């Protein structure tokens, strides 16, 4: 029996093409997914990114789905949030072929139920894995059919309906698509808006010839920063490979933290629904819940990861949620994440006032932060215990273990230390009043972690 433990992750399926993933395996995964969702739907919508392997794998998955008697609606090239739009608007389960920001040799599948509801390890992925490992049962009935449907224009119109830029002043915006799906969606979404777009790396190329399509790594936004300054642009946007995340830089080329974007968008959503609930994960700045509460909202803290965010949004009826990783979730978008919608909110907020983006976002940036720092360790558990013991012995320290280890220090500084689910790493995020306090606390923690 095949062992899929290396590719079935917490939130998706991902692996090296030709070694861990091939068309035969993906066909079985499609069959297993069809068996999972048969009780609720007779069709599946499928999209794929621009990676060389994506069309073949998407077709193999469709073959598996139809082999179980279900129909397939193929939307072809798509961003991940475009697939979520199709799942939501058509009310169908979906499969998106992408490995997001991973290098070219990888591919993967993000799955959802009807209405873009997440499929994670505890909500279907483990069952799919077990079905494939044990052998997918054959279906004796009539095979399903495949139809094609282009939803790009409807997706763009839906987003523009949610954010009104009609009153915006003209803005010049540099967009770095990283040779990913933003190069496909941005021209249609931004068409007709009061925006002058300066495109960077819009050519679809799953080999990522210019830089990795991961804007959270500072080295991957260097070109964007330089171009914003060179063009005298009002803002810069960087999308990851499947264009579901968006990272923002201001008119100086300086990065705007996803926490500041979360607070900005939260306030705009609260203007539409006063008193609404806003979700933030435990690594976002503590400025986020402060600002939400000051504007009459109800901040709710949750674990890191889209399945936890979406589950909490469903439970609380939250109107919006944001993560430190630049994932932004909207109730009006089936509680799914869409960086494109967050980008439209930022541009609308900027266009509604005369000042620069740096001035607008300064009020949402209250503290200094380290960003995520990874450390390779031999024993994650032992290192975590060592940190807990060391800080737990200090006066006035508060510790919780909702997701990893979150340590609140007297004076307002805090840090979170979390183990990676897939690598021998510990991930550290530190926040404090100023850069010097962040540096000191970071060194203090790393001395124990890397001891």
From TrEMBL:
InterPro entries tied to this protein: A-D-PHexomutase_a/b/a-I, A-D-PHexomutase_a/b/a-I/II/III, A-D-PHexomutase_a/b/a-II, A-D-PHexomutase_a/b/a-III, A-D-PHexomutase_C, A-D-PHexomutase_C_sf, Alpha-D-phosphohexomutase_SF
GO biological process, one term: carbohydrate metabolic process
NCBIfam families: PRK09542.1
Family per similarity comment: Belongs to the phosphohexose mutase family.
Organism phylogeny: Bacteria, Bacillati, Actinomycetota, Actinomycetes, Pseudonocardiales
Ranges for domain Alpha-D-phosphohexomutase C-terminal: 372-446
Highest rank taxon of the organism: Bacteria
Keyword Ribonucleoprotein recorded: no
The entry's keywords: Isomerase, Magnesium, Metal-binding, Phosphoprotein
Protein name, per record: Phosphomannomutase
Alpha-D-phosphohexomutase alpha/beta/alpha domain segment(s): 8-134, 154-253, 261-367
Known cofactor(s): Mg(2+)
A GO term, aspect molecular function: intramolecular phosphotransferase activity
């Amino acid at each position: 029996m095949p062992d899929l433990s290396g590719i079935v992750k917490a939130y998706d399926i991902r692996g090296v093409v030709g070694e861990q993933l091939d068309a035969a395996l993906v066909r079985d995964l499609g069959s297993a997914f069809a068996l999972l969702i048969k009780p609720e739907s007779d069709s599946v919508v499928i999209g794929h990114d621009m990676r060389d392997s994506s069309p073949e794998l998407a077709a193999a998955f469709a073959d598996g789905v139809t082999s179980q008697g279900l129909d397939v609606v193929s939307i072809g090239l798509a961003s991940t949030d475009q697939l979520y739009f199709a799942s939501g608007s058509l009310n169908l389960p979906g499969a998106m072929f992408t490995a997001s920001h991973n290098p070219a040799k990888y591919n993967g599948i993000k799955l959802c139920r009807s209405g873009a509801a997440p499929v994670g390890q505890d909500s279907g992925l483990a069952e799919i894995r077990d079905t494939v490992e044990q052998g997918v049962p054959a279906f004796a009935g009539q095979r399903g059919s495949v139809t094609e449907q282009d939803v790009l224009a409807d997706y763009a119109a839906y987003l523009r309906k949610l954010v009104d830029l009609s009153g915006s002043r003209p803005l010049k915006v540099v967009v770095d698509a990283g040779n990913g799906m933003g190069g496909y969606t941005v021209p249609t979404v931004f068409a007709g808006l009061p925006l002058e777009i300066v495109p960077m790396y819009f050519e679809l190329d799953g080999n990522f010839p210019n830089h990795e399509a991961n804007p959270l790594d500072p080295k991957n936004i260097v070109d964007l920063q330089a171009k914003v300054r060179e063009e005298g642009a009002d803002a810069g946007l960087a999308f990851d490979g499947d264009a579901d995340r968006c990272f923002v830089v201001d008119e100086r080329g300086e990065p705007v933290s996803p926490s500041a974007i979360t607070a900005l968008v939260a306030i705009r959503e609260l203007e539409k629904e006063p008193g609404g609930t806003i979700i933030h994960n435990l690594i976002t700045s503590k400025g986020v819940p402060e600002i939400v509460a000051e504007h009459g909202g109800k901040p709710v803290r949750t674990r890191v990861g889209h399945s936890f965010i979406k589950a909490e949004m469903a439970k609380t009826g939250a109107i919006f949620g944001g993560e430190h990783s630049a994932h932004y979730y909207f109730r009006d978008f089936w509680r799914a994440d869409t960086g494109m919608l967050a980008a439209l909110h930022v541009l609308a907020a900027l266009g509604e006032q005369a000042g620069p983006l740096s001035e607008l976002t300064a009020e949402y940036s209250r503290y200094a932060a380290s960003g995520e720092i990874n450390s390779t360790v031999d024993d994650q558990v032992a290192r975590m215990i060592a940190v807990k013991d060391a800080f737990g012995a200090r006066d006035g320290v508060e510790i919780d273990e909702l997701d990893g280890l979150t340590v609140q220090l007297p004076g307002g500084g805090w840090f979170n230390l979390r183990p990676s689910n897939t690598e021998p790493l510990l991930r550290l995020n530190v926040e404090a009043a100023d850069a010097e306090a962040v540096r000191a606390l970071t060194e203090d923690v790393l001395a124990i972690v890397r001891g």
